[in-house]
Amino acid sequence: LLASNFLPGIQVDAQPPLVAALIFALILGLLNAFLRPILLLLTLPLNLLTLGLFTLVVNAIVFWLASRFDVGVHVSSFGAAFLGALLVSGVSFVASRALK
Fold it and tell me: pTM, whole model, 2 decimals?
């Protein structure tokens, strides 16, 4: 919901938006748990070459792929997915630090 308020390329179209955001978060969590490690392993040489910065691109791909499931969250471009993944990662980092 935060990403859709700050980034113009991300829209939550479903009613109520909280339910769509929760379903999107569940799908994103599942993809991060199962698909992201496989993608990171496949892109390991490129990740080493870029000193880990390609991980941001992998995060954006997973974020975009989660939006392809028809749950009411739409990402218009790769740039929006990249910024959305950065924002979600930042919020997740701050939340994990606040809970410790």
Answer: 0.92
